[in-house]
Amino acid sequence: MPQHYYSNQPDAQHDRRAIEEQLKGSTYRFISDAGVFSKKGVDYGSKVLIEAMEFSPGSEVLDVGCGYGPMGLTAARMVKNGHVTMVDVNSRAVELAKENALLNGITNVSIMESDLFTAVKGKSFDVILTNPPIRAGKETVHAIFEQAYEHLREGGALWVVIQKKQGAPSTKEKLTKLFGDVQEVTKDKGYRIFKALKPLK
């Protein structure tokens, strides 16, 4: 059975490549490789989320399923006085994300291997970002949403990108059940960006 980008230890033969991307008004250089998500360039869904996301410069941010790092590293430049934690189950993606942080001179990040939220147990964040691994199945995707709720501070926001054809309506329904307050921030070429706010007690 072929492995997916959400495998822990991808065995795909290496195929490293350099990518240059314009994200949120800045130029980034990334190294990608076989066995990671969207190896040929930053995927359109992540770009839509990156352009939409907004948060204060002192935020503590978590990027779940960071891949080789485009969303988390862009967020790190946005939160100059804050910090971004980036996690992924894929060990190759984690090493690439660390390399790409150095390549782009970004230091306010922690990057670690983690099966969903296991590496950040007991920690809480102002913002959580995710481009969820749809191919891993609805159970995994919904687990990300549920655990995100537990790891957000009151008033914190979960930002999600998802394609309409890959379950945007059911995603919004699930998020509304969990959070109550869910906004569709933008839509672009079938992609939906949802922002779910954790209520204040």
UniProtKB/TrEMBL annotation:
Residues 28-195 form the Methyltransferase small domain. GO terms for biological process: methylation. It comes from the Bacteria. Signal peptide: none annotated. Keywords: Methyltransferase, Transferase. Gene3D superfamilies: Vaccinia Virus protein VP39. GO terms for molecular function: S-adenosylmethionine-dependent methyltransferase activity. This is 16S rRNA methyltransferase.
